[in-house]
Design goal:
single chain; 2 strands; MetI-like fold; mainly alpha; flat
């Protein structure tokens, strides 16, 4: 906050606005944009890892593993995201505390779930950053499980789209099944899976406001908090400005999706270069002209 912001009642015009936009709550609002971006950057590779494991499991020749892979994709994709977020986080949190409870007293007391203080996750005596990291880790895990199920379905389809003749040719040259998978199928499946993964990335961006369900103060929380009408009881009273705050969020998400489209188009062009796909053929024609 600027030095002239000590007495808000004496401010007007741009000085009032500059002081208002640099309050502690606004700084938390600006940091929440970084929280959303960090969530996306961490969740995307973790969800992709979940998806790749699920796709490999769905292709397994061992029946229980194949059922597990297909069941993971089918069950998680069939549950609404909000319902899964509300159920999984509570179930995981209570499951950890259930294991850590010392059992000197019953854990179920009527309808209440009560554990000893030492079993709390995190402990009430833990610093604030531990609570924040715990909540953020739960968010990453929950997002990764949900979107990993969709990624598993996309990657499974990409694996099946790789021409069988290429796999048979590799096997005819003496490659093992493992070598054929990693050297032939995996490098080529990304060409077929990238369009679906691109759509999944866009959906992940749009789903980031669900962070508030996990108790994380994200950009939507702060936009609603700061934009709501403030009376003279507050340091910086103002009418209802939520329209302008949410308009700013609209611009942010549109800009993020546009940048994502440009980046993904370049990745697609690089992957399809020289490949026997529609994208690769169009690149070849462009070079020939």
């Amino acid at each position: 906050m600027f030095s002239y912001c000590t007495d808000p009642d004496t401010l007007d015009g741009l000085k009032w606005l500059s002081c208002y936009l640099t309050t502690g709550k606004h700084m938390a609002f600006y940091r929440s944009f970084g929280t959303v971006m960090l969530l996306l950057m961490v969740t995307a590779p973790v969800a992709l890892a979940f998806g790749f494991a699920g796709a490999m499991a769905a292709r397994s020749h061992f029946t229980p593993v194949r059922w597990l892979g297909k069941g993971y994709s089918a069950v998680v994709r069939g549950v609404p995201d909000i319902a899964f977020f509300l159920f999984f986080v509570i179930a995981l949190d209570q499951g950890i505390e259930y294991i850590r409870h010392n059992w000197s007293e019953p854990i179920r007391q009527g309808n209440d779930f009560v554990v000893c203080q030492a079993a709390k996750m995190p402990l009430s005596s833990s610093p604030q950053w531990v609570h924040e990291m715990y909540g953020f880790s739960l968010a990453v895990l929950t997002f990764a499980i949900v979107f990993g199920a969709f990624a598993a379905n996309v990657l499974y389809g990409g694996m099946r789209a790789v021409p069988r003749a290429q796999m048979e040719t590799a096997e005819a040259y003496g490659m093992t099944r493992r070598q054929t998978f990693w050297r032939i199928m995996v490098p080529q499946m990304w060409v077929y899976a990238l369009p679906g993964l691109s759509n999944l990335w866009m959906v992940l961006i749009k789903a980031s406001p669900l962070l508030f369900l996990l108790g994380i103060e994200d950009i939507v929380f702060w936009a609603r908090e700061l934009g709501g009408s403030k009376t003279s009881a507050f340091t910086y009273p103002h009418p209802d400005w939520r329209l302008y705050y949410f308009l700013g969020l609209l611009v942010f998400y549109l800009a993020l999706t546009k940048l994502s489209e440009v980046f993904l188009e370049r990745v697609m062009a690089r992957l399809t270069h020289g490949q026997a796909t529609s994208g690769g053929k169009s690149n070849t024609k462009g070079l020939a002209i």
